[in-house]
Fold this sequence. Notes:
The structure is a single chain. The chain is of the alpha+beta class. It folds into five domains: about 1-60, Helix Hairpins (Orthogonal Bundle), CATH 1.10.287.610; about 75-310, D-amino Acid Aminotransferase, Chain A, domain 1 (2-Layer Sandwich); about 315-420, CATH 2.40.50.140; about 430-575, Orthogonal Bundle (DNA polymerase, domain 1); about 595-665, Rossmann fold (3-Layer(aba) Sandwich), CATH 3.40.50.10190. It is built from 24 helices and 22 strands. A hairpin with a 2-residue loop joins β13 (about 335-345) and β14 (about 350-355). The model has no long low-confidence stretch (mean pLDDT about 85).
Amino acid sequence: MQSEIKSRIDYLRKEIIRHNDFYYDRNDPEISDGEYDNLTKELEKLESEYPIFASSDSPTYKVSSILSSSFESVKHSLPMLSLSNTYSYEEISKWYKKIKKSLDDNLEFIVEPKIDGINASLTYVNGALIMGATRGDGENGENITENIKTIKNVPHKLEVKNPPSFFELRGEVYISKLDFKNLNDEVTKIGGQNFANPRNAASGSLRQKNPQITAMRKLSFFAHSFGRIYVEQLKKQSDFLRYCLKCGFQLQNDFKICHSLKEITSFMDAMLNKRDLLCYEIDGLVIKVNDLGLQKKLGNTSKSPRWAIAYKFPAKQATTRLNKIRIRVGRTGIITPSAILEPVVLAGVKISRATLHNFEEIKRLNVNEKDTVLVERAGDVIPKIVKVVKKYGEILFKPPLNCPSCSSEVVKKNEKEVAYRCINPDCSAQFRRHLLHFVSRNAMNIQGFGKSVIDQFLKNGKIRTLADIYYLTYDDFVNIDLFKEKRSNNLLEAIAISKKRPLSRLLFALGIRHIGEKISGIIAKKFRHMGALFEASVEDFTRIPEIGNILALFLKRFFENDATRHVIDALIVAGVNMTEPETYKIGRQFEDKVCVLTGELETYTRKQASKIIISLGGKIASSISKKIDCVLAGANAGLKLKKAKELDLRIIYEEEFKKLIKKSKV
């Protein structure tokens, strides 16, 4: 038994050291952060249960990074320790109670977001920046001063009147979500390998030998702690953060002082919900005893402070096996590949599929079936494959020559287009996808008309055109699987209601290429009747600001097509509405106004609020600038609201929004 335990401990130590090399020094991890943390937790548990096998050389006793020979080694004024990680509220509760028992004081805690970046220390002497260094092995770091100086929000001189003679602060170097995306886009253009996540991008950028390359990467810095500092008035961590602001450093807006476990966990819940709304990545929260004197009293272990702990959010990335690449035919004939994965849990959700976008993406990733891949799920975004971690074979997955549904030829129109298409207009898979889109919530919204219903009607031949939906009878429904009287009547009622949908919904339901929900609404509002669209010229379409020459020409060709006329005529005969009613008069409040939405509304979803603003003549933008007319702000609004206030923009809160809507109705 003990020999097996010893063997497992040795294996874990070697694996962790190997992954440290990939993670810290090559910036190209083979496994996700969560999987690395699981290895470390298992080793810590075994070493605790079997102290006979403990070793001072174990990676659990030291900060995990090897110093690079590319940079000069520098010693930190005090060791830069790592934080102990927890993954559950129960673990946080145990730590909290242990601290309370140890100090028996009326404690204050400060909770700060844990930025997913790379730790760095900055040393100032008499207010001037003289040194920037990585954490390294905790005792010594790498001298990256010239690279640190390229970060725009790092002051070269402290902005306080009487700067301390010595000030070493620590913080996180990171790259924003937008800059990370732009960086990977540039890397893709030159045929390079994308960074797996913003943390790797920040690390690789900060440790460039050429500072000019670092400057181009648009890094940022948040201060969060300090080594040695000669400032007497600092009594608390919150004092230190406020002092950093005076010195000219940027801080996260989202930190909170808490006085109870309930306050801590409530803030943790709020930040978990807000995580995807931030413009930078956070992978958890750090909870600290706020009083600096009590921090000193609690002290440190060889690796971590006892007065602080990190709570890690559920992992957004994980490694797994790609079992199969499935080919699907879309409603416009586009052939789309997707990945069938060995199930893995990401951000608390079991994932078994991921998008591959197109065959150019497969080529870029150099991915094939049976490869081990790194998968990412950010917020509600469909999971995607970030990179191949381990190849199974050298053969590249190629596009099919024939449609998997109808066996017709698959073509790519030109070299500039990435999409492969089935060119058969009667392809059954295309029609099936078209039907699913037609009955979907944002189109004709025929509730209960799902995949299984469509598949059965396609199989028995009851539906061959879109209009056939409106000729289905009670007998048709009760004769298919799992349908009884109530369900049949409900679906017949939903079909009847869908006939009355406005023209905007019908246009979107038709699945016109390049015409989404928003443009469908704008076109319907302009022309008001389907007949006017068949008579419209290219010039008539281009009079709509959102429609350019190419899209106008495409619309003209669509409505000139005989097949389009046959579909619409059949729907007219079936009794489907072809007009756009005026339900609102455009109120002055939103006429030609550009609005941004931020935060959480109680009465509406963001999508619903956006539709209301658009129906009242307004436009929706995603970012704050001087050109924005108003900002609709809900609860937990963050950086957008702050910036809007700085620019003195009009802020509308939910109650005022309701009143504006009421005034605009006729």
